[in-house]
């Protein structure tokens, strides 16, 4: 049985509404790794349980900024556009998927949604809110090329996949601030920006701040993130079947 991977569609802002869409990059990377992507539309969070029942693992992808109201902050001027309905659906999916023991992978906005869903907060605009001189986290170069290094924690799951000092791309201004429950930071940029988080005592959850779906065809270490994710999903499926 091919493991099914649930993903909520990205959104684009129209004049008076939002429209769901999905790029091929993540879907193709997951299929190459042996998974079958299932795309969920942005819907009321009450459908989270039904959506989750259709998939074996969950991937949380890029998209708009996370509404700070949902982690008890007021918006600052540097905040980008938000879509609270998408936030509420994904936050509920994070909580239910984690509680159900499903394997989880986060990309860019996904690391922020996962962190907030598990009780953490994010910088609404890391460049203006950090007290350090920051790197260029919103690269002008295409996302198909890397732009800066990250320092990976020794002994982490991420280190086993990518080594201790990989190059990544960068396309964000929000970033993890206060860490959510049962999570640990496993990679940072030179300016201390959080670049990866994992579940504390298992390999259930891994999320990165960059976009490996734009790099996986050229860089084996980024392709390995998707292979690892699908393998983590399969492992948890086998554990369920063995019970």
Automatic annotation (TrEMBL):
GO terms for molecular function: gamma-glutamyl-gamma-aminobutyrate hydrolase activity. It comes from Lentilactobacillus diolivorans DSM 14421. One of its GO terms (cellular component) is cytosol. Pfam families: Peptidase_C26. Keywords: Hydrolase. GO terms for biological process: polyamine catabolic process. The keyword Hydrolase applies. This is Gamma-glutamyl-gamma-aminobutyrate hydrolase. The keyword rRNA processing does not apply. Gene3D superfamilies: 3.40.50.880.
